[in-house]
Amino acid sequence: MKRTIHLNDNTQISGTVDRFFKVRPIFTFLNTMFRAELQTQKQSVDEVMVAYKGKTAGNLRQYIKNKPDKWGFKLFARASEDGFIHDMVLYQGKTMLQAHGLPLSPEQEAMGSTSQIVSVLASTMSSSTITAIFADNFFTSLDLVCYLKDINCRYTGTVRENRMGKPPLKPVKEMEKKIVPRGTIDYVSSDDGILVVRWKDNKVVTLLSTDMGVEPVSSVYRYSSEGKRKDEVRCPAVIKSYNTNMGGIDNNDILVHLYRTPMKSKRWYLRLFAYAIDVSLTNAWIMYKRDCKALAEDTMPFKSFKIQLGR
């Protein structure tokens, strides 16, 4: 069966900038289908690693040390909060977005490369005006937040020190001192509604957001090695929102890893073909669970009515 798998016309490969030419048609088809499905109002953007340890793919094979699959093909994906992946960008270096097939506007071209990825994935959402995007500090920049705000799309993400401008916040080194208690919050908001908040947990975390504010401040519990107990720590609302909604890609990744399609081959692109099967099955399972949940909610009034009649 593997000998008969053929995904694209090899006579068209000369002159193309697409290094994933071999599997591009199936990923283009899947992206088109996935974008058409129901999208929740909380979307997350993150990296996905498709495991591959062979060497025939050259530098298309990437390494990320904090992923379960450290070696493999790197994808950038956008997913709903339940884990349904709606769009995927295959990483291949400078020509990545050109091969993806979506042209960049002048505003997008002025951004950094990682922020461009989020802007491209956001452009394929069914309704950006009622959607909030969550991403980590690999993608977040002040330029990205301003761009999304201009198209009425809300955003929340952790941010690196050199990508957030120069807001008047306490320095990270000062907040890291032991005399500063865990749960300390420092924040500032611009006139156009961009919030920068810095919060001390086990480490100091900085976020940019146009979706949530600091209030209401709630509590989380953290273990204290000094007191040998869990202490109550103040936590801003934007941090809780980020932690709750950032896990869409991870949820999908867990389901994909449960039953991966075995596809050992010297042809590197067959590993991506196997992932296309896996992500399709996972998305189908999530759609099934959505339908079951919707059906249960629709029939709930009738169930309670029967129970009352039985009494």
TrEMBL record:
The cross-references to InterPro entries, in alphabetical order and at most eight, read:
PGBD, PiggyBac_TE-derived
Organism listed in the record: Petrolisthes cinctipes (Flat porcelain crab)
Pfam annotation, one family: DDE_Tnp_1_7
Q: Where is the PiggyBac transposable element-derived protein domain?
A: 3-285
Q: What is this protein called?
A: PiggyBac transposable element-derived protein domain-containing protein
Q: Which domain of life is it from?
A: Eukaryota
Mind giving the lineage of the organism this protein is from?
Eukaryota, Metazoa, Ecdysozoa, Arthropoda, Crustacea
One GO MF annotation is: sequence-specific DNA binding
